[in-house]
Design brief:
This protein is an alpha+beta fold. 31% of the residues lie in helices and 18% in strands. The protein has 12 helices and 14 strands. The strands form 2 sheets. Strands 7, 8, 9, 10, 11, 12, 13 and 14 form an 8-stranded mixed beta sheet that branches. Strands 1, 2, 3, 4, 5 and 6 form a 6-stranded mixed beta sheet that branches. Strand 5 and strand 6 form a beta hairpin. The protein is globular, with a radius of gyration of 22 Å.
Length: 468
């Protein structure tokens, strides 16, 4: 993937979908569209939008709002870790400052009243970036690349399931009813008829995405029953993470409007394939825009091999950031459409790292380990951090494989606790991610695991109730 040229946002253009330069252009953009309310948002550790909604007039008077810092120390169930030797909770729960990124301004097309949204950076009151905010963490990793004269380019692929609406969590999820009037019972990769079952919903999805300026490349039907995949256009990592945040919100809203749920769980349905968020990555020279993974003759460079080497060495330690929940590890099993190790190969979809066949300028590495439930900012940050460490520490990759390697023994962590322990024990990752982030993230994930352990599963009732 080569460096992409971006046109500056044009607020005076009535067709401009996404982004303005500053508050003055935002005023014109909002007034031209009759926007009544605006959502001022950022992503929490789970990758969900948190923030405030307010009248447009109030936003234009003062766009710098505040959020409590505790939002970034909260588990997926709304709990907070207890203090420990490595984790300290702010008893005052002080405020953090929201600073709108005007390049992200866009419509909220599913709202009945004219509404806009804008993604914010989050800083301490003294202006320093908060270490626990996912968007800031990705900025931190990108700054390391910038210092070396490099610019990463990424393209996420996001898989998800459409399921019947299910308000009772005690019952398993089921595939939805398609336009044929029948329940979807199986999946066929790249099936056009599978996509056609949800034509009206997909039409709305494309319409809503276009109105937000989201650059969707392709949509396909995946292996699972009513499992779809959206491929995003390649570009700047921060912009792509912002787009994934917006896209996940969009597909959930569109699905609910059509009487379904869209879920990004890694393994939502038993005996069906898991859902991934594959991340294609390359690195270009910031001055020339040339891909540093290839030389003038089109051959792979040492930076290419060491980028892969860094992923091979450090991704197992960073895996809790790309597979963040107990459910995530149900996807990473043998003989499934998911990796079980960090082997790499050219056009080998059984490996954790795949190098697609491409022209030299588009040479890239596809990280197939992340699951769809991952926070896009954290997943991209973790993957790029591993590659960066490989390039700067000159960690050479091993030889590529042409074998089927996802039937081998599993060498990745088998569960969340093992993954968190690995993150805490990895000093190079702690150095690049920040000690406070690693300690807080680990405390949150351990509490989520303990909360999960309080739930008795159907398997336990089925096999243990009368047999032990």
């Amino acid at each position: 993937m080569s460096k992409t040229e971006k046109k500056p946002p044009d607020a005076s253009n009535p067709d401009a979908r996404r982004g303005v330069k500053d508050l003055q252009e935002a005023r014109h953009w909002l007034q031209a569209r009759g926007i009544e309310d605006i959502e001022v948002i950022t992503a929490d550790l789970a990758g969900m939008a948190k923030g405030k909604m307010l009248p447009t007039s109030k936003f234009l008077q003062n766009p710098h709002l505040a959020l409590p810092g505790s939002l970034f120390q909260q588990t997926i169930s709304g709990d907070y870790p207890e203090e420990s030797a490595t984790f300290e909770y702010d008893p005052a729960d002080g405020d953090l400052r929201l600073e709108p990124d005007f390049s992200t301004l866009s419509e909220v097309p599913w709202e009945t009243d004219p509404t806009a949204q804008i993604i914010c950076d989050v800083k301490q009151l003294d202006g320093t970036p908060s270490e626990l905010v996912p968007r800031n963490l990705l900025r931190r990793i990108l700054a390391h690349y910038k210092d070396r004269g490099w610019q990463p380019v990424v393209a996420p692929e996001i898989e998800f399931y459409l399921v019947r609406q299910n308000p009772d969590p005690d019952y398993p999820l089921e595939p939805p009813i398609g336009r044929s009037g029948r329940q979807i019972i199986g999946g066929q990769s790249y099936s056009i008829s599978g996509i056609n079952e949800f034509d009206e919903m997909i039409d709305d999805l494309y319409d809503y995405s276009e109105r937000q300026g989201l650059e969707i490349d392709t949509l396909i039907h995946e292996e699972g029953a009513a499992q779809l995949e959206i491929n995003m256009r390649h570009g700047d990592p921060l912009e792509l993470a912002d787009q994934v945040l917006a896209f996940k919100r969009t597909i959930r809203e569109v699905a609910m409007a059509h009487g379904m749920y869209a879920t990004f769980m890694a393994k939502p349905i038993q005996n069906q394939p898991g859902s991934a968020m594959h991340i294609h990555q390359s690195v270009v020279d910031a001055d020339t825009g040339s891909n540093v993974f290839v030389d003038e003759t089109g051959h792979d460079t040492q930076l290419f091999r060491t980028f892969i080497g860094g992923l091979q060495l450090y991704m197992p330690a960073a895996i809790s950031m790309v597979a963040p929940y107990v459910n995530s590890y149900r996807r990473l099993i043998q003989s499934a459409s998911a990796p079980v190790n960090m082997a790499w190969g050219v056009d080998n979809r059984t490996a954790g790292l795949r190098v697609p066949v491409s022209e030299p300028a588009a040479r890239r590495v596809e990280n197939r380990v992340p699951s769809s439930d991952a926070n896009p900012y954290l997943a991209i940050a973790a993957s790029l951090a591993c590659g960066y460490l490989g390039m700067t520490e000159q960690i050479m990759a091993n030889s590529p494989t042409e074998e089927t390697v996802n039937e081998d023994d599993i060498s990745l962590p088998r569960g969340l606790l093992e993954a968190v322990n690995g993150l805490e024990a990895c000093e190079p990752l702690e150095g690049i991610l920040g000690t406070r982030f690693v300690n807080t993230y680990a405390a949150i994930k351990r509490l989520e695991y303990e909360t999960f352990m309080q739930v008795i599963s159907p398997w336990e009732r089925e096999h243990l109730l009368l047999n032990v």
